[in-house]
Amino acid sequence: MKLLAALASTALAVTLLPVVLASGDSPPPAFACGLSGGSIDTILGTIRHLESGGNYTARARGSTASGAYQFLDSTWNGYGGYAAAWQAPPAVQDAAAAEHVNGILAAHGGDVASVPLVWYIGYVPRPASPDWDSVPYPSAGNVLTPREYQARWLAVYSEIAAEAGAEPTSVCPPAGSGEVVTEGWALPGPRALLEATSDQLNSPHHDYPAWDWIVPTGTPVYAIRGGTVTRTTLWNRNWWEAGCGTTGGGDCTTCGIGVTITDTDGTRWTYCHGSAIHVTNGQLVVAGQQVLTSGNTGRSGTPHVHIEINADGQQRCPQVLIDALLRGLTLLAPELPARGCSF
C-alpha cells in the first residue's frame, strides 16, 4: 500500500515506501550522506524506477496514488488541469515531480540524500533519532527502515548517474572532531572505544602491515595526520555479499568506501570499509577531522576500520603509533616498523 507524509516545510505530501522495495532483498550498506553529481533528471529517474518502474499510467491499489511518481490526488492537486497524475502526459508528471524535488533540495541545502527520506517518511530525521532504524507503518506492508530505504535509493541513483556519465561523489558535512593528542596528531577514533579495544593492537594483521580495528558500524573515524585527500573510493557494497569471490573483478573494490590522505612529508594515510565518507578529493584536512564513518563495505568480513600507513614507499605498522598516541606520545611514520604486525 502507498502511504503519504506531509512535507512540513513546503506543505507538500509525498509517497512513502514503494511496493517494489518489499521484495525482501538485502539493501546495500548504509550510505547516509549527501551526493553531488547527477542532475534533477537523475533524481527523477531514480524515483520513477523505484515508485512505478517508469509506468506513467500506474495506479496503486487501495490508494489514490498514481502515475510514474505515485502522487496522491490531494498532493497532485489538479496539476496542469488533470484530476489525477495518471491522466497527465509524461512531461506534465515530470514537471510536477521536479517542483517537489526542487522544494526538498531547497529545504535541505541541496543534499540529494534528503530526497529519499522526505519521499519515504516526509522529513529528514535528526542524526541520533531512533526513526532512522524504525520501520514506518509496518502494518501497511513497509519492511525497510529509513536508513535502509535511503541506501537502496542512493544505490539506484548512483547507477543511473554513472550510466549518464555523471558518477556521483559521496560527501558529508563535517560531523565532529576527534581528540588531538598533540599538535598535528590525533586519535583515529573515540578514546573510550580505543581503550576498550586496545587488546586489538596486539592482534596481527592478516597479510601485510596495517591495522583492522573491529568496531560497530557508525563509529566516527578521524584523520591521524592532516594533509590533502588524494584518493577516495565510493563502492558502497560488501565484497562477499556482492559475490566478488576471492579475485574480484567488475566493480568490486577492496577498500569499499574509503579515503587516502597524503601529508606534507608524502606519507599516505588510508582508511577503508566505511559506511560514509566526509571529505572529497583535493580537500585539505587537519588532524582530528572526521573523514569517515565506519562500516562493512569492500573486502570486509565484519564491521571494522582498516588503517594503512605508507611512508617512504613502504607499508608501516599503525598499531605501534596508535598505542603511543593513546599514551600521549608520537612517532614519525618512517620510524614505525614495517614488520611484526603481519603474518
Describe the structure.
The chain is an alpha+beta fold. The chain folds into two domains: about 5-170, Lysozyme; about 180-335, Glucose Permease (Domain IIA), CATH 2.70.70.10. Helix content is about 20%, strand content about 20%. A hairpin with a 2-residue loop joins strand 14 and strand 15. The termini are far apart. Residues about 1-35 and about 170-175 have low confidence and may be disordered.
Short key terms for the protein model shown above:
343 residues; alpha+beta; Lysozyme; Glucose Permease (Domain IIA); disordered N terminus
Helical content class: 10-25%
Biggest sheet character: 9 strands, antiparallel
How far is it from the N-terminal to the C-terminal residue, by CA?
54 Å
Total strand count, please?
A: 15
H-E order:
EEEHHHHHEEEHEEEEEEEEEH
Structural class comes to alpha+beta
CATH top level class name of the largest domain:
Mainly Alpha
**Content of β-strand:** 15-25%
Coarse morphology: elongated
Number of domains: 2
Question: What is the average per-residue confidence, as pLDDT, rounded to a whole number?
Answer: 81
Instruction: Give me the Rg, rounded.
Output: 22 Å
Q: Could you say what the CATH architecture of the largest domain is?
A: Orthogonal Bundle
Q: Runs with pLDDT <50, length 5+?
A: 1-33, 170-174
State the CATH topology of the largest domain. Lysozyme
Please report the number of helical segments: 7
